[in-house]
Amino acid sequence: MQQVQGYFDLQYEAVKEAFAALFDDPQERGGALCIQVEGETVIDLWCGTADKNGEHAWNTDTIANLFSCTKTFTAVTALQLVGEGKLALDAPVASVWPEFAAAGKENITLRQLLSHRAGLPAVREMLPPEALYQWDTMTAALAAETPWWTPGEGHGYAAITYGWLVGELLRRVDGKGPGESIVARTAQPLGLDFHVGLADQEFYRVAEISRAKGNFGDASAQRLLKTMMSEPASMSTRAFANPPSIMTSTNKPEWRRMQQPAANGHGNARSLAGFYSGLLNGRLLDSQLLAELTREHSVGEDKTLLTQTRFGLGCMLDQPNVPNGTYGLGPRAFGHPGAGGSIGFADPECKVAFGFVTNTLGPYVLMDPRAQKLARTLGECL
């Protein structure tokens, strides 16, 4: 039996027990959970191992690749720049990035990029594996790309292209690397251990990520997997496998170092909970911009994920009646899951900020059942 470390408020003992129970599964390696209620930390727990071989314990300062949990940090940074008048939600992207106007994209807006409505979740022409680490190669490919559907009509999740599309705008208007911009505007003011572009001297504390075996997930996970196996040139496949290195780079040093603000933020459960507390208490965005972030912009069948999704601007909104689309608390919850199970979200009605981080990747497309169970248990304690 692995020992759970950390702190919990006795009112939330059931959540601690639910977290401990995850590690009854012999495949579960390591993870952390942090929950803040009205800005107070009521749970700060970690357990298990940080490496694939089970030799190194998960520690209080272990961080992990948070995958798409990064996207909301990126969106908040963009919205801060909107608040400063350096970007505009409804101005053409090409007004800041002229090359982007090619191939019928002259009217695409930042709002459409943030809400996955721009028609650019993938690049059609196969790129070499090393292109993943070449910012200029990727932004040039996207600037030249023709939208996969009429921009603004319907939505399709931009799993990784979101990072280059929004990140290039941040780079152009904020005058620094997109990761530096995001960290300076979100993590540093709140004192969060969160990084987009990790320094080599931090590598020693990064959890190695690996997949759980033998679990094929729910129907939507299986549908997407089947498409990727049988339709190599489909938009969904290209979104996750072009460049082909996307799926295999997580533990590589060059992946950790790069600033890819769709998917390579590194942090811990505290940094996720702290970020969402910062949003709830108005420290990152004013109420008007927060309302834009969390207002429904896209809902329905997702052209990339082939399941129902609901988005604000760079955040995923709760779908109470969709089993793989609910955070497990209230209908106004907003946040973002990351590939394989990590998740950060806020529930404004319960005044809850929630962060769960794992290095044991599950197969689910949207919400991971582990995090949902923890959130439901939390709801019973409130």
TrEMBL record:
Residues 19-374 form the Beta-lactamase-related domain. Transmembrane segments: none annotated. It comes from the Bacteria. Gene3D superfamilies: DD-peptidase/beta-lactamase superfamily. SUPFAM superfamilies: beta-lactamase/transpeptidase-like. It holds the Pfam family Beta-lactamase. InterPro entries: Beta-lactam-related (IPR001466), Beta-lactam/transpept-like (IPR012338), Beta-lactamase/esterase (IPR052907). This is Carboxylesterase. The gene is estC.
